[in-house]
Automatic annotation (TrEMBL):
Taxonomic lineage: Bacteria, Pseudomonadati, Pseudomonadota, Betaproteobacteria, Burkholderiales
UniProt keyword annotations, A-Z: Signal
Name of this chain's protein: Lipoprotein
Signal peptide: 1-22
Superkingdom per UniProt: Bacteria
Length: 167
């Protein structure tokens, strides 16, 4: 492989890995009221995670919340204990044991986190798995999936508020 082809492959991998954090698609009937948009601009509460009986390990929860906090700060979302409540309802999680992850890598199937986020009277779905772009960028870890979901939540809250997602 020539150096030029190798550099192109690296650039493509970096580009696609930058796309791993997606912006949620918020359906029109679920966008919320004008009052919700205005209230979000004044502040939101720290998200509450409702796993509804789904096993969500503490480190996945922590990674998700950390990624949310970093992205929210980047977007300029304000936190206020009396602000608009944000609830992340986890509907499905698959996380393998470390032994299975080491022994079988991607042969044991994908890991994922999915759910629904409610902010005021608006809601949107979130979902991420380890298979996204796995051929060009390599197999992702559940840590990267949790980070992507936390970022999706922050992006979705900003979209509901009508804020730009400038990077």
């Amino acid at each position: 492989m020539s150096l030029r082809c190798f550099a192109a492959a690296i650039a493509l991998s970096l580009f696609l890995s930058g796309c791993l954090t997606t912006v949620p698609d918020i359906e029109t009937p679920r966008t919320g009221s004008v009052q919700t948009r205005q209230q979000i601009a004044n502040g939101i509460q720290s998200p509450r995670i409702d796993s509804d009986g789904v096993l969500l390990t503490p480190w996945v929860r922590s990674a998700m919340m950390s990624a949310f906090a970093m992205r929210a700060a980047h977007l300029g979302l304000r936190f206020d204990p009396n602000g608009v409540p944000v609830t992340i309802r986890i509907t499905s999680v698959r996380s393998k044991s470390d032994t299975a992850r080491i022994a079988f890598n991607f042969l044991d199937g994908a890991e994922w986190v999915s759910g629904t986020v409610t902010v005021g009277d608006a809601s949107f779905d979130i979902q991420e798995d380890t298979w996204l772009y796995w051929m060009p960028t390599g197999y992702r870890s559940i840590q990267e999936v949790a980070d992507a979901v936390g970022t999706q939540v922050a992006n979705g809250v900003a979209l509901v508020a009508g804020m730009p997602l400038n990077d």
